[in-house]
User: Fold this.
Amino acid sequence: MNIKKNVVFPLIIIIAGVTVFQLLHVTKPEPEKKESTSRPLSLFVEPARAADKTLNVSVTGEVRARSEIDLVAQVSGRIVYMSDQFSEGGKIGPEQVLIKIDDRDYKVAVAGAEARVAAAEVTLEQALADADVAEKQLRGFKNPSPLALKK
Assistant:
């Protein structure tokens, strides 16, 4: 019974399907063939003539730059000079100065930084001198601490 279920019934179904397909294929009707008749074309011919003609064309659209850059300042400040070419659509060349920023604040900041560096150098020299004096004063003592030597 098990062999009948697993082998015979599927074979019968496949054979029946192939038989039905062949039967439908053999008995299909032939399509009707219609002969096409050519229709006469109506044709109008006129020779080409050269003429001057002005055409008015109205269009709308958006104009965009071919290339676009973002110009960002690395520092802030008051602008004291601006080039005439620094405008929308202006053409600029390499190494061309577009704007100048007031540099007085930066010069003051540089001078302040130089003064702080000089003060730090003086403090360093003072600390080295104090360490030298402490070492000379503690020569007679055995194993003075680094704190006493001002290292």
